[in-house]
Amino acid sequence: MRCMFCDLDIINKDLSKGLPITVPGKGVAHTYCAEQDLHSRRIFGNIHIADLEDNDLYELKEMVMAEVNQRNGIAPKTY
Q: What is the rounded CA–CA span in Å between residue 73 and residue 65?
C-alpha cells in the first residue's frame, strides 16, 4: 500500500513520515504527508482559508483574536 501524496510504502518500520492514516474520501497516507497537504492548501477543520473572501477572512481573524483574548482573560477594547 502506498501513500497517496509521496507514493512511498505506508506499511514499513520507518515511521519518519508518521503512522498511516485514512484520508476520508481519498485514500491512505502518512500522517506527515496528509498534514503537509492540509497546510499547503490552507485548510483548517472544514474551513478552506484560501477560498474566503477578504471581508470574511478579516472577520474570521477578529473572531479568533476575540476568542484568544477571552481565554487569556484580556478585556476587549472599547472604542
A: 12
